Amino acid sequence: MARAKLPRKSTTVDMTAMCDVAFLLLAFFILATKFKPPEALKVDTPNSVSTKIVLDKDVVQVTIDKNGKVYFSVSESNPNQKADILDDINTAKNLGLSAEEKKNFTHTPNAYIGVPFSQLKAFLDKSPEDLKNVILAGIPVLDSNNNEMVDWFRAAATAFAGTKMNVVVKGDDASKYPSFGGVIWALKRNDLMKFQIVTNPVAVPVGTELYKVNVATGTKGSSD
Amino acid sequence: MAEVDTSGGGKHKKGPGVKKGKKLSTRVDLTPMCDLGFLLITFFIFTTTMSQPTAMRMFLPKDVKNPDEQNKVKNSAVITLLLGKDDKIYYYEGDDPTKMLQTTFKMVRDVVVDKKRRTDPKDFVVVLKPTPDATYKNTVNILDEMTIDEVKRYAMVDISPVEYTLVQKTEAANGIK
Question: Alpha carbon B158 to chain centroid distance?
């Protein structure tokens, strides 16, 4: 008996459509990716279950690097306040900063202050490229008699008077507590009782009290 | 996965002697290109950090000098956590630091939850005291732990010299440098 002859079909599939989809997705991902802006200060932040996104407007940021040195910066969207803060410090501490030196802080993106008042003039003379090779002293916070963050916060609070100022602390995992303690002390001295800590989001551990609450209310993470 | 050339081998022949121009297929095998596309997609997905940094809100208590205005807490309802060197936590209940016990960041949840269960919720207070040897990470982690354990009342306080000496002694006894 003759076997029924099955027609031989090609196993090749037209790849054009799949290829189109692949490249469409690729194009989407490339365009949607927002690359991290280059950071002048490298800081590894700790984790938390908080889900609130860090603000980027009206921010006064205090950065603590891994050696516990403290830096002060203001968000890019507030050049006027930035200038006011520096003017205020200049007048209060009699630093005699030139217009050029002030411009270095107010008109440079990602500009930060990382030296005591005594070195501020020399610090602002340097260009951002030069600063990469200089070891900065950081703003003194450890001694409560000489906590210069108090003056920076006071100047910032004055400059932001009328608008809501968001104090953000971004600390490195490896830095020791005293630097952070010094910043808190300076905040308290200025009656700035609210601030935010920059963290990396992590999931709430299963089985904990917050987890149970979140399951019950259908929320994720923590809003605080 | 070579493409089968279907265009050749035509049935209708042109007249004899007429040279047949070979018809080449315009189809290209797209499989490798598709592979490459997906490879790049995978690469971009893995390298993209979708998660933006989040902010933990923190409220500081006002320093009150007048003892009458200070918050009173019941001794039995308080647990104090001292953050030491090397990610160690020392804790004691009530107001006697000499009864200090030791734990780690992995185990501290049990300690806090256990104390919380044994205490009247309206009195329960956790006092956090980071020593100068504790890292910033320790401090933030313990604050986060308070959120995770749903501790409503906690305070971060500077460590007293007595407690710090005790912690240092314990650390020395345990050989933590």
Answer: 25
User: What does the pLDDT look like over B121-146, one tens digit per residue?
Assistant: 888 888 888 888 888 888 888 888 88
Among the partner residues B48, B54, B83, nearest to A51 by beta-carbon distance: B54
CATH class for the domain made up of B75-173: alpha beta
Structural domain of A158? 47-201
**Chain A: nearest CA to B32, how far in angstroms?**
9
Model pLDDT, residue A55 = 78
**A chain contacts of residue B4, beta-carbon cutoff 8 Å:** 10, 12
Partners of B29 on chain A (C-beta within 8 Å) are 15
> Could you give the ipTM of this predicted complex?
0.75
pTM: 0.74
- Closest Cα to residue B96, out of B116, B118, B80, B120? B80
Closest by Cα among B163, B58, A150 to B171:
B163
| Residue, of B105 and A105, whose pLDDT is higher | B105
User: Domain tally for chain A?
Assistant: 1
Would you say residue A35 lies in a domain? no
B45, B52, B136 member nearest A64 (Cβ): B136
> Which residue of chain B is at minimal alpha-carbon distance from A19?
B34
Determine which helix (DSSP H) or strand (DSSP E) holds A70, and give its type and residue range: strand A70-74
